[in-house]
Amino acid sequence: MADELPKTPMLDELEKGPWPSFVSEIKMAAKRSPASKDLLGILERSYQEKIGHWKHGGIVGVLGYGGGVIGRYCDVPQDFPNVAHFHTIRVNQPAGWYYKTDALRKICDIWEKRGSGMTNMHGSTGDIILLGTSTDQLEPIFEELTAIGFDLGGSGSDVRTPSCCLGKSRCEWACYDTMAACHDFTKNYQDELHRPAFPYKFKFKFSGCPNDCVASVARADMSIIGTWRDNIRIDQKAVGDYASAGVDVTKEIVNLCPAKCMDWDGKMLKIDNSTCRRCMHCINVMPKALRPGKDTGACILIGSKAPIVEGALLSSVIVPFIKMEPPYQEIRDLVERIWDLWCDEGKNRERIGEFIQRVGLGNFLEMIEVEPAAQMVAHPRENPYVFYEEYFEEGEEEAEN
Amino acid sequence: MAEKVSVAEVAEKMYKMVKEAQGMRKLKAMDLTKNIMEIYGDRVDKQTCKDAIREIIETEKCVYTYFGGSYIELPHKEGAANP
Ligand code: SF4
Ligand code: SF4
Questions:
Q1: What SS3 class is residue A372?
Q2: CATH number belonging to the domain at A233-291, selected among 3.30.70.20, 3.90.950.10, 3.40.50.300, 3.40.50.20
């Protein structure tokens, strides 16, 4: 069918070296798929001309949904007719990205029949990304995906497909069941996921411990990160074994503790848990000796994002500790209050983090009925947004005005 | 208390708003909800607005579009689309 591949001297450069190459992958797909063959051609042309040839967005989707399909057309369809349409489909991944090979085969069969055959497992959103199809194939693809138990993910101004680390399924450090929470939120917010109703996107990401393997602190509008509120469990004998095996406990652990709350006298490791920041450093270095506490739950943070309309933001703490138990009602109530406020007051394309920057975190907390807490402050005197009203003298404000 | 407005009535009103704005201003779901709540006050709630949006989309009177953010518009052939 597509034996003769176009000449791609510039793209070929990207196949050199020991690392995997997306060009080699496209070439492999191009042997079977005319769309992949034209993709090689248009990409080479873009590299030669230093001009992108894609048009993005518009009206494409499946009936009833406002997300899950990202429209893409090329502006030179006469030269590359097989990528005249090259829409991307986002498919909601299973929690923790667990599949049976059988499920993957079925997805690939659909995609080879109805799309370019190329996938991106997984996109930075967490979804399964199916790259490149035409408008007339969208409804049949949707129908066939739902028949094998998959649904589209989020895109546009909606709840994006929630994602989570694999949590308790494989990781001893998980402080709550991330997969259960992610699955529950995905089911509960189906309407918000498929029918965009917000000023802009809203992402939930669930990490089981502060190692934050899904990088929620940098990428989620709401980060739900496992933590504990009792004491780190210490096996003193195992600490001694690490020291005997050559680990310099003082240099590698105690001195690098950001809270400076550890002490090691060569025999006994002590931790002042009241000032520990639950950063996981010591636990990561001596996993056989130290473990998170037993009274576990999660810390909720809000407002991170990658740079798009404005610059990147990291999340801020809004709930220092909460038990993570179904049906997660307290978190749902909080989410509703945040969404109500953001939908009423947020500007078009304003992420929740940007909204908070505009109104001020102190005002935001008041509007969503959350009391300020010490854990929301990074360093003393660095976060001037919290005002403790009990310290205001009566009449002080009038006097100042 | 004043009688609640039906989903069908809100859907019709929203459809008219989208139609009038077509070609001049793109409306988001939240714009429609805000406008409706301003018109009907406590005779309408957010759930009715959500249901009404679902109705105008599922009956194909309107479609979701994406131009940097998500909007609700009348179905049309857009400039960017290739045949
Ligand atoms: S975030 Fe923590 S619990 Fe989740 S996989 Fe990573 S280390 Fe394990
Ligand atoms: S978790 Fe972090 S802050 Fe707490 S004791 Fe260990 S290194 Fe220090």
A1: coil
A2: 3.30.70.20
State which amino acid sits at residue A188.
Answer: N
Q: What is the Å distance from ligand 1's center to B70 Cα?
A: 33
**Helix segments in A291-401, DSSP class H:** 329-345, 352-359, 361-367, 396-400
* Percent above pLDDT 90 for chain A: 86
Architecture of domain B7-81 in this structure = Orthogonal Bundle (1.10)
Average pLDDT over residues A119-123: 91
Q: Is there a contact between B68 and A349 if contact means CB atoms under 8 Å apart? A: yes
Structure confidence by residue, pLDDT tens digits, A367-388: 999 998 888 876 665 555 555 5
What does the alpha-carbon distance between residue A86 and residue A77 come to, in Å, rounded to a whole number?
A: 11
Pairwise CB contact (< 8 Å): A59 & B75: yes
Q: Can you tell me which residue has the tokens 């992610």? A: A182
Question: What global pTM score does this model have?
Answer: 0.91
Residue A62 burial (CB count, 10 A): 20
Q: Which of residues 19-58 of B touch A (CB under 8 A)?
A: 28-30, 33-34, 50, 53-54, 57-58
Cα(A119)–Cα(A219) distance, rounded to whole angstroms?
Answer: 22
CATH for A163-228+295-376 is 3.30.413.10
Structural domain A9-147, CATH architecture: 2-Layer Sandwich (3.30)
- Interval B14-72: pLDDT, tens: 999 999 999 899 999 999 999 999 999 999 999 999 999 999 999 999 999 998 889 99
Q: Provide ipTM, 2 decimals.
A: 0.90
